[in-house]
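Take one protein record:
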Amino acid sequence: MLRSTLLLCCLAGPALADDSPWIGDWAADPAWCAAAGRTGEVPEAPIRITATEFQGYENRCKITETDPLTVLPGAELVLECEAEGETFADARLLVIDAADSMLMLVPGAEPLRLSRCASAVAPG
């Protein structure tokens, strides 16, 4: 789905030992990491990705499928989301391009660079 876009954005990436390096709190602006405990409540807070859920401001998605990339560290996530009273299917392509940096690709949108927040996230 989004993999063809990936080839245009990245040709190589670091090998990471973690099977799910995308799990954690990620922010478009590193200053938003200060609001990591308020994910979903305030707009300037990081997104939170666990093994089963993708949560952002006023939206929450259940991860229904995780398809790890074979060449680069990352995965395509298939999501069932709820936002503003609506439910819909969605997808995200996540590419870890450095230890604390991730590129997120969303169909029909510009790629978004995210920085890992230092706060720990419990898996699940």
In short: Confidence is low (pLDDT under 50) at residues 1-17. DSSP finds one helix and eight strands in the chain.
